[in-house]
Specification:
This protein is α/β, with parallel strands linked by helices and 176 residues long. It is built from seven helices and eight strands, in the order βαβαββαβαββααβα.
Length: 176
């Protein structure tokens, strides 16, 4: 059965505290396309879109939800795939992020990073405990500037951050 690609881009996102979802909305608005949560994603339905933009949040350098894309990438071989991730850090090492998240069949996928923030109020108890241990480790390494930055909730997400991704998607053509 041949894929019938009859729609433009779609944004699929995995978000826990809202930053990745907010970026999904901004991307979808700029591209005038739909966006859906990964929980609602259906591989067969996604095969109708020319470009799949996948977004996930970072936890210990790992893009959450990326397993979905890795597991199903062969189903999307006739589509363009672009990935973005959000996190609380500035100046992420993109080479490290690629090496940790986009291996094997995903190695040629484009990757974008957007600064989001932290929202301790929306974190699960487990994630708050993880952050507490992470802060303790940072203090032991005398990284007080980082500790100060991430010890409370903050939001540095900005709609203009999506522009490079949006421009890239607009330039993508149909894959053969």
């Amino acid at each position: 059965m041949e894929n019938k690609i009859d729609r433009g881009p779609i944004v699929v996102y995995c978000s826990k505290t809202g930053f990745t979802a907010r970026y999904a909305l901004w991307i979808a608005e700029k591209l005038e396309c739909p966006f859906i949560s990964l929980k609602a994603a259906n591989v067969a339905a996604l095969q109708h879109y020319e470009t799949i933009i996948f977004g996930g949040w970072l936890k210990a350098g790992k893009i959450q939800g990326i397993e979905f894309l890795a597991k199903n990438i062969k189903s999307f071989e006739h589509q363009n795939v672009v990935v973005y991730c959000t996190g609380s850090g500035k100046g992420q090492d993109m080479t490290h992020l690629r090496r940790k998240n986009l291996t094997g069949a995903l190695e040629d996928v484009s990757l974008h990073y957007f600064v989001g923030g932290l929202n301790y109020e929306k974190m699960s108890l487990g994630d708050r405990a993880f952050m507490k241990m992470f802060l303790k480790a940072l203090r032991a390494r005398h990284l007080e500037d980082v500790v100060k930055r991430i010890s409370t909730s903050f939001d540095e997400s900005k709609p203009e951050n999506v522009e490079p991704l949006v421009e890239q998607v607009k330039k993508l053509g149909k894959k053969t």
